[in-house]
Design brief:
The protein is α/β, with parallel strands linked by helices and about 300 residues long. Helix content is about 30%, strand content about 20%. The protein has helices at about 20-25, 35-45, 95-105, 125-130, 150-160, 180-190, 215-225, 255-260, 285-305, and strands at about 50-60, 65-70, 80-85, 115-120, 165-175, 205-210, 240, 245, 250-255, 270-275. The longest helix is centred in the last third of the chain and has 23 residues, at about 285-305.
Amino acid sequence: MNAAAHPYPIGTPGTPWNNSDKQQWLALQSVKRSYQTDVVQPLETMQSGLALLQYGQLQYGAATYPLFALKSAQWQSNKPVALITGGVHGYETSGVHGTLRFAQAHADDYAGQLNLLIVPCISPWGYETINRWNPSAIDPNRSFYAESPAGESAALIKLLGTIAEPILLHIDLHETTDTDNSEFRPALAARDGTYHDNWNIPDGFYLVGDSHKAEADFQRAVLDAVEKVTHIADADENNRLIGSPLVQHGVVNYDTKKLGLCAGVTDARWVTTTEVYPDSDNATPEQCIVAQVAAIQGALGYMLRQMA
């Protein structure tokens, strides 16, 4: 289905949005769930060997969003860092809750072996409004570069600048949903004055690696852990996932730094982005959360084996 046949209700087809169009889009957004209740309160009451720190704050209209991270309370200067991020796209729910679940239930398993830096919800406004963008119609996951226009991305970059120890691993938790085709890709095409075709949404879990450091064995270790929880997506009839060529079962690669993706925000050796499909008939919301946790455990387990 081409967007030309079903134009987005904001803007003029073929013409990028002006400020008035962006304000019209913003006026249609509404709060649907609570960042304070779902994310901040669990962080503040979490019982684990992790220290809670506020690394920034976003102000959108009358709403204030403090930004929080968790880090190993017994931080060791002679140990590398594993970075875990979620909620870059706030609407991708299991990324946020999978990060929180791992922090609460499993982070202590790694105490003394490595330093953990966990950022559960990078885009709190996006979480509350179930959105891919921030209020300025900017995608934080295309904005991880110097002088970023997205406050969400800039705040994380600033936090990472305070970490002296090498970041050896980064796993970024995401979802691919049916609303990518029904809302977010059409909105993107309208905003940029282009056109889009729907792509096949993979049914199952898959990974996006970095084309400059594919690390096939690392990606396989993550998928092996996830496969115990939920199914891995098969390629389409063109041997692609989400429009990209398959490089190994369940894995496609992107140039993460060039695209400004969160996965490219560090120089970590082992990098991957998880993608679960919460709209699958073969998976539940709980399975999606557990799959995200399994992915983190698979990634950290591989890292520790390589360090041994």
